[in-house]
Amino acid sequence: MMQTITTSDGVKIAYNQTGKGKDLILVHGYGCSSLYFKRNIPELAKQFRVTAIDLRGHGESEKTMKGPRISRLASDIHELLEQLDISDAVYLGWSMGCSVGWSYWDMFQKDRLSKYIFVDEPVLGLDTPNNPSRLLNYQQTLDFMDSLAADKQTTLSNFISGIVINKENDVSDLIESSCKIDPGFAGRLFYNHMVTNWSDVLPTIDIPTLVISGEKSLFNPELVKATANLLPKARLETFMETGHLMFFEEAERFNNIVANFMEK
Questions:
Q1: What CA–CA distance (Å, rounded) separates 34 from 37?
Q2: CA separation for the pair 208, 210 (Å, rounded)
Q3: Are 99 and 52 in contact (CB under 8 A)?
Q4: Nearest residue to 174 via CA among 17, 3, 38, 4
């Protein structure tokens, strides 16, 4: 059963905490939830205290129109760590969860954190001539926002099912959890996420960092790998046979990589 904290602006944020040991914070991607880590939490909790959050507006957290911005999500993480008295955590962010982690560093630096794990995210999501992310260009981003407003269920279902490489994986429960988000909140957050460039922040992150890339990702893997070159204390792990959901599709290897990084 998930618990909640209440943020400084009065929004209830849901989280699940399990296990004992060094703290690991799991932060999911855009339009998703902590349920996406269902193949990771039980194993990692055998060695660590795992806290998995449902970001504002997502999953079991309160549905609100307040704060559809990466910076507000990062502030929520900081408030969560404060309220749970977590002071030396490893932060693992997947997809937009990376951007939330970069924003956290931009505002709070290493406060309450000892290491970062960034999973499959370039410094800018928007596809441009100078940043061939392979996701969406500016007009396509606006079109995606419109499609969320018109038919959230179909838009998110197609998006989530499209990032699965092994189609034998059943992701119906993940899609159901994604569709709990308010389409207005989702559209505004997606825009903020897509157009923000974090390339000036990464070179300032001076704690040990692990970057994980999926070769078959919806994102250009070369841009994801390039983030490791911007980070002063980063190393890179690549999954060759899977993509954006490598933690779900190759959970055993992913869990081992995370555990090894945690223990070093």
A1: 6
A2: 7
A3: no
A4: 38
- State how far the alpha carbon of 121 is from the alpha carbons of 67, 93, 133, 217, in Å: 22, 9, 9, 10
The CATH number for 77's domain is: 3.40.50.1820
* Tokens at 155, concatenated: 């838009």
CA distance 50 to 72: 22
Token digits of residue 80: 């969560």
Phi, psi of 42 (to 5 degrees): -60, -40
- Number of domain units in the chain: 1
Domain with 99 in it: 3-263
* Strands 12-18 and 49-54, bridge-based pairing: antiparallel
User: How far from each other are the two terminal CA atoms of the chain, in whole angstroms?
Assistant: 31
Residues contacting residue 172 through CB under 8 Å, at least 6 positions apart: none
Could you tell me the CA-to-CA distances from 69 to 56, 72, 109, 141, 254 in Å, in that order?
Answer: 10, 5, 18, 16, 29
pLDDT in tens, the chain (264 residues): 799 999 999 999 999 999 999 999 999 999 999 999 999 999 999 999 999 999 999 999 999 999 999 999 999 999 999 999 999 999 999 999 999 999 999 999 999 999 999 999 999 999 999 999 999 999 999 999 999 999 999 999 999 999 999 999 999 999 999 999 999 999 999 999 999 999 999 999 999 999 999 999 999 999 999 999 999 999 999 999 999 999 999 999 999 999 999 998
pTM of the predicted structure, to 2 decimals: 0.98
Report how far residue 51's alpha carbon sits from residue 77's, in angstroms, rounded to the nearest whole number.
Answer: 11
Phi, psi at residue 113, to the nearest 5°? -120, 145
